């Protein structure tokens, strides 16, 4: 069985519905043969706040194995801390650095 890897880039909260729709389509199509990470930076980190409107969707995808990461630089710039996000969200030093690392590992880059 072939395996795939994809990284979604989320930098605007307004794009969250499209990211989640694309994510759902990808999982429906490739199922267990795909590893997926969603990286949020800039204002996009707000999508994964504990108090955010997408908590249920985030939880659903996290339970399916989707990884989520937020940019530490963006957290500092926006005044958030690690405690503002669910435990399932990783904090990475920089969102763009995470994207570059993942692309070097062969992840397909998707930016809705």
UniProtKB/TrEMBL annotation:
Q: Name one Pfam family in it.
A: DsrE
Q: Where are the transmembrane segments?
A: none
Protein name in UniProt:
DsrE family protein
Q: Name the source organism.
A: Methanofollis tationis
């Amino acid at each position: 069985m072939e395996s795939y890897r994809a990284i979604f880039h989320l930098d605007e909260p307004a794009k969250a519905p499209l990211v989640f729709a694309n994510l759902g389509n990808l999982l429906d199509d490739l199922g267990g043969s795909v590893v997926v990470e969603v990286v949020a930076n800039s204002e996009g980190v707000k999508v994964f706040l504990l108090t955010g409107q997408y908590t249920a969707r985030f939880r659903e995808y996290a339970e399916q194995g989707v990884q989520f990461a937020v940019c530490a630089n963006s957290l500092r710039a926006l005044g958030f801390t690690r405690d503002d996000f669910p435990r399932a969200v990783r904090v990475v030093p920089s969102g763009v650095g995470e994207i570059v690392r993942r692309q070097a590992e062969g992840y397909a880059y998707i930016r809705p």
